[in-house]
Amino acid sequence: MALLRVEDLKTYFQTDAGLVKAVDGVSFTVNEQEIVGVVGESGCGKSVSWLSVMSLINPPGKIMGGKVLFEGKNLLEYTRHSPEMRAVRGAKISMIFQEPMTSLNPVLTVGEQVSEMLRWHLKMNDKEAKERTLYLMNLVGIPDAKNRYDDYPHQFSGGMRQRMMIVMAMSCNPRLVIADEPTTALDVTTQAQLLELLNEMVKEFQSSLVLITHNLGVVARYAHRIYVMYAGRVVEEGKAEDIFERPQHPYTIGLLKCTPRLDEEEGRELEPITGLPPNLINMPPTCAFLPRCKYRKERCAEEPWPPLFPVGPDHYARCLLHENAEGRVNMND
Amino acid sequence: MSDGPAVIGKAATVANFQEAPPRISEWKRFRRVFFGRGMVVVGSLILLCVFLTAIFAPWLAPYDPYKPGVGNPLEKPSKRHLLGTDNLGRDQLSRLIFGARTAILVGFVSVIIAAVIGITLGIAAGYSRGPANPLIMRLMDALMCFPNILLALVIAAILGGSIVNVIVALTVALIPTYARVACGLTLSVREYDYVLASRLMGFGNFYIMFRHVLPNVFPPIMVLVTLQLGAAILAEAGLSFLGIGIEPPGAAWGAMVSDGYQYMMSNPVLSLAPGLAIMLTGFAFNMVGDGLRDAVDPRLRGLL
Amino acid sequence: MTKYIGQRLVQALLTLILITLIVFFMMRLLPGDPLLIYLGQRAELHDMTDEALEELRKEFGLDKPIMVQYVNWVAGALRLDLGTSIFYREDVGTLMKERFPITLYLGCIAMAVSTTAGILIGLLAAVRRGAWPDKIISPLTYIGVTIPAFWLGIILIYVFAQKLGWLPVSGFTSPFKDFVQSTRQIILPVICLSAFGVASTARQMRSSMLEVLPQDYIRTAWAKGLSERVIIIKHALKNSLIPVITLIGVGFRVMIGGSVLVETVFAIPGVGRLMVSSIFSQDYVVVQALTLVIAVLVLLINLVIDLFYGWLDPRIRYN
Question: Cis (ω within 30 of 0) for the bond into A60?
């Protein structure tokens, strides 16, 4: 059953240079205890869409439309900092950010930064909150948690801080955890450990997880389903194995061709996607990937950006190639 | 345009694929930010007026500012004497106009000398790895423990209350700020790769200081100079209010406030007008300094 | 933290020594015979015989080498023996004992007012950025830092004492003697003394708060579901206070300097007024002593602020 459904979400930024349609009509579904990967280049709107789900978009950004259905309510009907929205944030849906170095408050102890959530949302007293925090700190493998409870963020390494962020995110036993590039700022060995930990944690707490990343390798191992985003829209969605084995959108194919994989035979050459991501100001109505596309046809420049066509069971791609059912692409052609 | 991936929402720089919009030139950006705030424009206009008044004082003043008895003593403002006359029958407007000369002269000379000495000390302290740094900086700390006006008062009292000594006194009082800012900036510039590279290539300390450090220190110092001009003019006014500085027939705004104070009940404009002049000038320097800072480099906000 | 405190104490000690050197040698810049420091400029030295001059030199220790004179002077200051005023013919320590409490009383109230009012006003302007409180506050803070304290005093006296007659024109009464009268008398001087502090603190507070609010950790706090009140007070305020605290030291220095002018305008018998009158009566012993004491006081305040700063910012506390 769907835990969260995002429908036709639009988030625009009014900048000096013009209106930036950072997120322009995206829809997601996250099921109970599911791990969903959201993949795309920087600036494709993947972070902005999930910050919108949390109503954490600051001016000049504005959510222009759509629905965020969670537990039978449309979260976008609440005002940004209303009590109803605050009761969801942190307690039912929590978020882990990219920069562990700057995402923790430097003048508060790490323990307090977790305990305050427990006192706030779960109405625990000081002692209960501290006990639960220590329990969670042990669970995520912070050694000597008792003594480190009163430490400040700058006394922690990057990996340890991100573990604290995980503690914070899990503290109130949320239904959904949104992890926005949680390992990008860390070194490779720590990355793997943290992803494994995050995976264990959502299993342990029976939560769902949204893993936002620009790195297909990160989601390959854990995600059940994947959304690929480009220029503020979802261009392909499907089960992880379908996306990796039978990608149907030229952009996804391009992404896979430039991502090294550990489980493949030697000898494949990595191919970069040529060109640059588009300027989101004054976008033409045609496919945004068109200028970089290797599969483009003349018709592509005449038609507006097509809708998501079904290309297999639970597998969709936003490309004219799939207008007819027989248009399937083999990425190795 | 930009060749890196764009981050949406954080900064509004979005990579453009089709056509590159023209890059805004530094000067254009500077002008846009600087004149973007109404208050900064007002400040600039006030400063322009004060400068012009100071330069053209003899032509602008309707009467000889030093000559007593051009009107009756303590005349109320009238068509003949727009701001009235003081207790000696001197035209208050003329004195106000000549007072701008004193303020600008004292302010500029002391701030410029203080900047030259302070920057030299600061760069030397920041660049040296020997005992010069702690020694210079502690000396600056020590000087900073004396309130500006107190230091100026004592120096002027010892050397005598002439206008030159007021300038000396203000200079001494203003040096530490420049030294501190220059030292802090030098310390950060020193760690830049190109300074290191320059050192590796065997260039001498003096060459590096002039070639690399000074240009980096210069823009924030310009901002500081503007802000300090306001402070110097205020301090000069305080000193002349206490009766130190300009010799009796001369006109200084602070002294005029003090002289007019006795006749506050009968003729408040005598004291109000020069006070307003002090405040507006200080206000204008502060506004322009702030505008400059935001236009040159908004990151300086915490520093200056 | 111990290392940080130790470092600060050593620095302060070095600065203290430099302060004494500056004060001592500044007085020696006085043109003419150094005896004038102790006798006043009007002493008619040329009428005296050489023997009499020699006698006087001996009395004041001026026959010894200059470094010895310096050490003796510092030793005296440490014993709180700051010399005798030639004008008042009284021990400088006694003179100060009467006047310092008055200046400090006014100063402490002004500091308290400027810090609390400045922080609150700056906070309000930052949180309601661009709305009407900010639009009123921002220009007022510019006026506050540039209005000359003495002129503000004159205007306040003119309006509230002379025209409206609500408050006394000038003077000072001990709060222990007549609390109501004392309070009525200090209202205007305190406004003058704290104008700069309120305005500069508010300005710093506003800009440092605006710097903190877009930080990642504030976004984290929002994502945790906390309320705006908790986020501002608990998560943002402490961070944004760090740069404001440093400014309080500067504010104190400016305020002590301003008390020279304000005490003159309001005829308050504090150290500021003593300073001015001593300069005009060429009472150099008093000038020297006051300069030293004020500088040391500013040094101490800054030391306390540095230590408080260390307490406020754990990154300093634990490094």
Answer: yes
